[in-house]
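This entry is passed on directly below:
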Amino acid sequence: MRRTGTWMWGLALLPLAACGISKDVYQKDVGLLRDQLNATEREKAECVQARDGLRGERDRLTEELAALGRDRSALSADLQKALARMEELRQQAERRKAKLRELRGKLQEMVAAGKLKVRVDKGRMVVEMAEKVLFDSGKFKLKPEGLEALAQLTSVLRSIEGRAFQVTGHTDDVGGDEYNWTLSLNRAREVVLQMIEMGMPPERLSAAGYGKFSPVAPNDTPEGRAQNRRIEIVLVPNLDELLGFEDE
């Protein structure tokens, strides 16, 4: 058996000897090739891992892109709604301005006669009537000429459909606070009752008394105190239009 093994090994070395390559060189080259093959396999595994990672990143980016598309569509829809709402509010504002211009035109005759003033205060239209037109000093019963002026005004205000009015009484600072509170409220209430008698629906009216606490001029001159003694009829803003409230 030993002879046979030696003979077989000798046969295995014959090709190397015939090629002029020694056994050590051959084994060295085979080792290098094996190392290169192993390195290639490792590089291949790393490339496969990198490829799988890139695929995952691609899938994630694709999903993010789709989500951004959905968000953009939602934002576009919201933007369209916001623009539509802005246009609606603009049209409402234009209608309010047109109503105000129309009302000013209807009241121009009374304004020219010095019976009232029309102004805008904090976004509200205010019709102001001086005390001397409506009442005697310290009284809350309307004078005949006051009733006539109020009837003319009520006829105009009644034509503005669907709008409410608040009648507010104001005094100067002469006299005690309790007296002025009572006088201003009594005057506002008297105007409301007379407007109802003149055909204004009662649900469209309210009354308030401010006494001396909402002046339009300083109370340190007779002219200023005269301006503060007044009745104001305020066009109440429609909050549904201004704020977009809806019934729930």
